[in-house]
Every structure is written in C-alpha cells, then in structure tokens.
Write a structure and sequence with these properties.
The complex is a heterodimer of chains A (about 650) and B (about 90). Chain A has 23 helices and 27 strands. Chain A is an alpha+beta fold. Classes of the chains: A alpha+beta (about 650), B mainly alpha (about 90).
Chain lengths: ~650, ~90
C-alpha cells in the first residue's frame, strides 16, 4: 500500500517535472511573437522626435513665424495627495483661481489633464522644484509670430496641436509641419538610452521653411497707413496690396483691422480673413482702363477719340446715368479717364458691345481665381450674357461686376509690365535645411492680355489721371510720374440695390509710370468722412508709393526736364533705350502741352536745353547772363503773361 | 617552454576576453558621455532659438519706429528730405 503510494507520488512528480520541462522548452526554444516583443520591450525604448515646424521668412530673411521650445504642465489626478495644497499653490503661481485648477483635476478617474501650456522653461523649472505629487511637465513646440499683428491674415495661425488653421500656415501645413521620427534604442537598467549614434538627438527633423516675396518693412508701412486712414475717415476697414509690376510678386498685402496671431482666439473670426483675396466687391471706375485698353487694342477707340458725354445725364432703358460730380460735354478718351466720366465709359462700352466687354474683363482675370497660393481665393463674378443695355453701361464703370483687390492689382500689373497677366506669387521658395531640398516656385504667365504698344499707350493715358486736371492728383509722388485710376463705388445690398452713403473708395496705380516697378491698390470700405477715391484712397497710395521708391532707392524721374531723356536707368539696352526715349518724349510733350499756360521750370538748364524745351511752344525768351538758368521772370509755375515773354537769368556754375 | 604553452593560450584567451569586456564598457561609458553632450547641445539649441526670437522681436519694424521716434526723437522723412544719389561711383544699392 505504502509502496504503491510512493509510486503514484513518484509518477506524479515525474509527470509534473515533464510538464514543466516541456513548457520551458516551448517557451525557450519555439518562436513566440508575444514573448519576443515582451523581451524586447524590457531593454528597448522608443524615442519620438517631433518635427520642428518650418520658419516663415520675408524676402530679406526676416523671421515672420518661428517655432520655439516651450513647456506645458499636466497633472495625473490619481497621484495628487493633497488636493487643497495642489489647487492653491498652482493657482497662485499660474494666476488662476483655485477653483479653476480644481475643476481640471476633480475627476480622479483621469490620468492626464493639461494644467497650462506653452510656459517658459525657468518658470516651469521653479514649479517643478516644489515637488508637487501628480504634477509634471513636457516640452512642446510653440509657434510664435514675433512681429505681432504684421501680415497676420496672410500668415494665419496654428492650433494648440500645432496644425495650421488659416492663412499660409494652413495652405502649406503639409510642408511646414515636416515628418517626425521615432527612434528605437537599447536602454540600460536605469532606463537611459544606450547610444549608438549621438546624432539622432542633435538632428531635429524639420519641415520646410517658407521664403515669401513680402517685404516686412513695406508691409508695416502699408498696415500703418491703412490704419491711419481707417481712423481719419472713420471707415469700417481698408485693404491694400503692393505688387512688383514686372512679375506680380506680392510685396505687401494687408487688411485692417488686423489681429495678433499669437492670440488668434481673442480676435473676432471675421478678422482672420484675408480680404484682399477672399472678398470680391464691385470695384467702380478702376475697371474703366481695363475695358478701354481692349477697345484700343481692337481699334474701336483711340486716345484722342472724342466722345460726347451728354452733359451729365444719359437715359438708358428708362434709367438715368449721372456723372459722379461735374457734367461733361465732349471729352477725348484720355480725358474720360482723367475725369472718370461714367457716361463716356458707358459709350465706349456700347461701341465695344457686351460680348467684347465681358471678354475684356475675363481676359484681365475677372471671374476666375488667379491661383495665388493663399487659401480661400475668390474668383469674383462676371455675369453671363446676355446683358441689357443698362447692365452694360453699369459694368463700364465698375458696377455689376465683382473682383477681388488682388485681381484688380494684377490686372493693372498687366498694363504696367507690357500686357502680360501673371499669377501673383507670395511664396518664392521652400527650403528644407535638414535635407537640403529646395522647391522654387516660379511666377506663372496666364496670358497676354494686350499688346506692348497698347500697354504703353495705357500707361501714358493713366499718367494723365494724376495731373492737376485728373481725379488722381492726390496720388502724385514728388519726383516720380504716377499712372493710376480712382474708384468710388456704391455698395450693393441684396434686395435693396445701391445704398446711399455706403461707398468703397479706391485708388490703383503704378510708378514710375515710364518704367513701372510697383503696382499699388488701396481700398477703403465705407468711409464716413469723405468717400471719393481721390480724397480717401489716393493720399494713402502716395504715402505707400513714396516709401516704396525710397526703400528701393529708385532715383527720381523728372519729366519735362532734359535729364529724363538721358536717364540711363530707363534704357537697359539699345533697343529698349530707343523705345523708352520715344515714349518719354511723347509723355514730355503731353505734359508740356498741359503746362502751356504756365511758365516752365528752366532752373539748372543750359541755354541750349532751354531752347530745345521751348521748341514748338509759343514762348519768347529774353536772355540775361551766361551759364545755367538760376531764375526766371515770371517764376516757374506762374501764369504766362499775355505776350508770352519770359526773362531767364543765367549764372556761371 | 612547452609547459608554458597551454598557460599562454589560456592567458591570451583571458586577456582577449577582458579586452572585449573593457571595450564594451568603454562604448557604454562613451554612450553616456555622448548622451549628456547631446542633451546639452539640445538645450543650447533651444536657448539659441529663444534668443533669436528675442532679437527678431527687438528688430520688428514697429519697435524700431517707436525707439526712433520716442527715444531718439527722430521724425519720419518727408519725400523732399530724401537725397537720391545715382552713378557708378556711389556705394549705394541702386
């Protein structure tokens, strides 16, 4: 009996040992994925290296948006021992109420709650020294816009999680954010990584840096002037854009009021919108030159074609069209632009016909987004045909057609650059410093809209708008010929038509008119103190244009002076020199004709130059002395006497 | 001599093993040094970024204008006050 019991016990033990050995063999020798993973996790660690969001630079390498390290505090409510102390100490240090902290940590089932984010390293370190149980900190990237409100609508902003939510941050989010990296390393008993290559810690993966065409200084000036205008004229808002006349690069683009992207959530969401590209509006008289240029291109009118402007009243389909201010009789095409005659523009549109006018507007880029790399670009609106006669007349002076400020500026850039419409460009280059990859973004040509000759004629005609008899006199820039057009548009409200007293004042132009470098468009929405584009928007244009030419160190161009004809800067090669001189001669002749009844300014000219200047003019001169002209009687700018006699006093240099 | 041969072999094996262990420990030790330096480098890089941000903030146009007008009592230049110079011998950006 005992023997058999021993046998059973022995047998049981043997079986038990066999089972253990078999199991041990299975675990040790046969492959097991789960166990292998467990084994690896014991001596391996994963380190996440988040990508640094790319920097946004202006054209001169100034940082407009950067990513810096910051520290965020979180709590594990389960770990908190003394809740009262925790609430009160943190509340005092962070500037919150104890209840605010309590509400965050009251749910003890949670293991992770944010207490505060994006704090300074020293501050977080001082909190950590308090050794509050349940409080911890992690490093997080923080997006900072060091220039505050500057270019805010264009740059946009990012959310707490670092994703782009508006502007360029949204448009280029996929390239800016970059790709983070996860590194698996062996670790020691204390959890420290056993390094194979130290570079994995020092090489931070990064997104692409964006290089913009915008000039931060010019941008600041534009925003400052727009803010001043909004304040002075008690306007709702104002927008402005400055383009490089030759390639449609955006040099400045602003909508005021602005917002601070560092605290975007404190601003009204309506301020986040970049109205220069998102808002289409009826632009008013600034469309006249676009239609006229096509009419000249097709031989329908010439700059000196005379049109009767019905003395200020024209009846069309039972509607009366008025001039904005003064009635006009006979005007040349140039004078229609100079004085911004609505009736004259309507008659030119009638001569063209609705189909051609529509085609002209479409050709200049209206009705379709230009393709600028900014989110939410609107294409504007050009109504489909057929148009009634009254609609055609209205469209001729910019009512019943919608375009964005960028479309209008770009259309004028086409006139300025010789007739080519281009896609405006705001991002010139994307660079990844880590990988060394460069993505160049080229300026795209959309189409040729008008011939170089017609563009040249239009530049000359538009330069007359800023003479003393034109509506754009306030847009003049001392030392530089300015070509441009005023716009005063009534605001249409759906169902009510055009509201009295609600206007959009604008001025678009380029300078120097003979060799354009800058196209500037200024729009002031709903000004309450004054409403004409000439009095509200044109002075802003002048300020911005003055700053732009000073910043670009452009030498002044003095028309009606001999020097302009020899200005080597105008002519870059022999062919263009001949063209430029001929163009400027024509311009000088026109300006001289305008000044027929005034004493020209001969100061500083030699006798030969004076004689050349007055050739063909009914002026008789009396010469006193030798050298260059030091003064004239009557003085320059005064009305000529009836006998047209001018005494010039020469002085040795 | 032949009596020492097995001993020499054993010694060589022992020395080789010790050397191997020594170098492995050295690799570990260097790893810690590199880790420490990498953390320091990272911290300096973060510091550099924060200082760059400070510099950018100081150089922002709004701040410069405020310093020029309020502290240096300077005025905005009027178009007539700006002297434009041209010519190949002038060291100005044209």
């Amino acid at each position: 009996m005992v023997k058999s019991r021993f046998f059973v016990l022995f047998f049981g033990l043997i079986v038990g040992w066999c089972v253990i050995i078999a199991r041990a063999t299975q675990l040790q020798i046969l492959p097991n994925k789960r166990l292998a993973e467990l084994e690896r996790s014991q001596y391996r660690t994963r380190i996440d290296l988040p990508a640094r969001r790319g920097v946004i630079f202006d054209r001169n390498g100034k940082e407009l948006a950067v990513t810096v390290p910051s520290y965020s505090l979180y709590a594990d409510p389960k770990e908190i021992r003394n809740q009262w102390t925790f609430d009160h100490i943190l509340a005092r240090r962070l500037g919150y109420s104890p209840n605010f902290i309590y509400q965050k940590i009251r749910d003890r089932s949670k293991q992770f709650v944010w207490i505060d984010r994006h704090l300074k390293k020293q501050f977080v370190a001082s909190l950590m020294r308090l050794h509050l149980k349940g409080l911890a900190a992690i490093q997080e990237p923080d997006r900072v816009y060091p220039n505050g409100n500057l270019l805010s609508q264009v740059l946009g902003f990012v959310g707490e999680d670092g994703r782009g939510l508006s502007g360029l941050e949204l448009q280029y989010d996929h390239l800016l954010k970059g790709k983070g990296r996860t590194v698996v390393l062996e670790r020691d008993a204390r959890g420290r990584p056993l390094l194979v290559n130290g570079k994995i810690f020092t090489d931070t993966p990064a997104g692409y840096d964006l290089h913009l065409t915008v000039d931060a200084e010019l941008q600041f000036k534009l925003e400052q002037e727009l803010e001043k205008t909004v304040r002075i004229h008690e306007a709702d808002s104002a927008t402005g854009v400055v383009l490089d006349a030759q390639n449609s690069n955006i040099l400045a683009i602003a909508t005021v009021p602005t917002f601070n992207p560092n605290r975007a959530w404190d601003a009204k969401p309506s301020l986040w919108r970049d109205r220069v590209v998102t808002d289409a509006f009826e632009p008013g008289s600034v469309v006249k030159p676009l239609i006229f240029s096509k009419a000249i291109e097709e031989g329908i009118i010439k700059p000196n074609t005379r049109t009767f402007c019905d003395n200020g009243h024209m009846l069309i389909d039972g509607h009366i069209i008025h001039e904005a201010d003064t009635p006009f009789g006979w005007l040349t095409t140039t004078q229609i632009l100079m004085k911004s005659s609505n009736i004259g523009a309507a008659k030119v549109a009638f001569a063209m016909g609705a189909a051609r006018v529509r085609e002209a507007l479409k050709d200049f880029g209206f009705g379709k987004p230009l393709g600028v790399s900014l989110p939410g670009e609107s294409g504007g609106f050009v109504k489909p045909l057929p148009w009634r006669k009254i609609r055609l007349a209205n469209i001729a002076f910019g009512q019943g057609v919608e375009a964005t400020a960028l479309q209008i500026a770009d259309a004028y850039a086409a006139i300025a650059n010789g007739g080519i419409l281009r896609t405006p460009r705001i991002v010139s280059e994307l660079v990844n410093e880590q990988t060394g990859k460069h993505i160049k973004i080229k300026s795209h040509i959309i189409r040729r809209v008008i011939s170089p000759e017609v563009a040249s004629t239009m530049r000359l005609m538009l330069s007359m708008v800023t003479t003393s008899e034109g509506t754009g006199y306030n847009a003049r820039v001392s030392g530089y010929p300015v070509a441009g057009k005023t716009g005063t548009a009534q605001v249409a409200v759906p169902g009510k038509g055009y509201v009295s007293g609600d206007y959009i004042a604008s001025f678009v132009g380029f300078l120097p008119a003979n060799d354009p470098r800058f196209v500037i468009y200024i729009v002031v929405n709903h000004p309450r103190d004054g409403y004409y584009g000439a009095e509200v928007a044109a002075p802003v244009f002048s300020e911005i244009a003055s700053f732009a030419v000073q910043r670009a160190a452009l030498p002044p161009v003095l028309l009606t002076r001999k020097s302009i004809l020899n200005n080597s800067a105008i002519a870059r090669d022999a062919a263009t020199q001949a063209q430029s001189i001929a163009r400027i001669r024509r311009m000088a002749q026109v300006l001289a004709a305008e000044e027929k009844n005034q004493t020209p300014n001969f100061t500083g000219l030699t006798l030969r130059e004076v004689l050349n200047e007055i050739r063909g003019m009914p002026i008789h001169i009396q010469i006193h002395g030798n050298g260059v002209v030091s003064m004239t009687v009557p003085p320059a700018g005064d009305t000529l006497p009836a006998n047209k006699r001018v005494s010039i006093y020469l002085k040795d240099l | 001599m032949s009596q020492f041969k097995p001993l020499a072999s054993v010694l060589i094996i022992i020395v080789a093993l010790f050397t191997m262990v020594f170098f492995q420990l050295e690799v570990r030790r260097m790893g810690y040094v590199v880790l420490k330096q990498a953390i320091k480098y990272k911290s300096l890089e973060d510091h550099y970024q924060l200082q760059s941000l400070r510099l950018t903030r100081i150089l922002r146009p709004e701040h410069l204008q405020s310093v020029a007008i309020n502290q240096l009592t300077m005025d905005e230049p009027l178009p007539g006050q700006v002297i434009h110079m041209s010519g190949s011998n002038i060291a100005l950006r044209q």
